[in-house]
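Problem statement: downstream parser choked on a complex file, so we are re-checking the raw output for the 5'-deoxyadenosine run. The parser issue turned out to be on our end (a line-ending mismatch), but while we're here, posting the original submission so the record is complete.
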Amino acid sequence: MNAYCEARPVLFQPTERADISRLLTCEGEEQQALFQAARAARQAAGMDAVKLRGVIELSNYCQKTCDYCAIRPQNKEMIRYRMDVDTILAITAEIVAEGITTVFLQSGQDPKSDAMVLEAIRRIRQADVNVLLNLGEKSRATYARYVEAGADSYILKFETSDPVLYQNIVGTPLAKRLECARWIQDVGMKLGTGNIIGLPGQTLDTLVDDILLAQELQPDFVSSSPFIPNENTPLEHLGVGDLQLTLNSIAICRLLFPHALIPAVSALEKIKKGGQLMGLNAGANVLTINFTPKDFRDKYAIYSKERFVVSLDHAHATIAAAGLRPRQVANPVEVVSSYN
Ligand code: 5AD
């Protein structure tokens, strides 16, 4: 065990670059001490109850050309879809019926769905649930319209803090992404952000910078996801991102953002059975359950064709295995009729 963990076994604060760097690569007993400290920080912050989100992947049209993602427009193998409002509301009713209070609308960066999304948000809000969005880079005015319609939070990951790497892999400037993140906060939404671990050219220093960038943004939610090689993309032949680095990054984020929502992303389960449980044990406290109907879901291949699709049963089993409880409403409301 290293002196750092011995000296401050619980609730320690890695504030220096060297501390973050060391914790990112720690192993064995030292790593267990890190995870334990992260769990203690989560408990002390009153954030142990696991938040469930229900995601609807409403469109796989995308303007962005990210090298890691199969819904990039260059992928001509991908059959494209865009849901209509009624489909989204029918799925929302399923989410709400399960007692899940956050409806998470996710899509490629698809300006043609903006108007439909606004209408969907307004109508989803007729049930007493939160609307979380992950729809990419928009104008400040568009973000403001989402808020007017009733959305309260937005995930826009910076993916990597290295501007050169970001430009090379994503094809647009990191500065633009960060400007959008600021707009999201300015218009009054909670911000979720985070990185991908395992991009080509990333170094340990880049990952330290990722954590420092997250600190600068002061997000409400933060995530680290392992890279998953995706068919029909320029990065399809790369290996998966490192599980231990990802878990350590999650734990460090918990120490730095004790009150944040931190997901154990499905990509963790994709690279290792039980990976999401490992994420909860490292300090995460969110699971996202996929409610996208199978026909659409199969076409939403951001995490490869055989991605791990999180079911309600899997989420509950994972939460129980972590010795935690879901954060859920006592009496799920019947909302189907309220949309008619
Ligand atoms: N591996 C890991 N994360 C990915 N994302 C998209 N494709 C991949 C991949 N191949 C993540 C990005 C994006 C979010 C919606 O999904 O971080 O912001």
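For whoever reads this later: The two ends are 61 Å apart (CA to CA).
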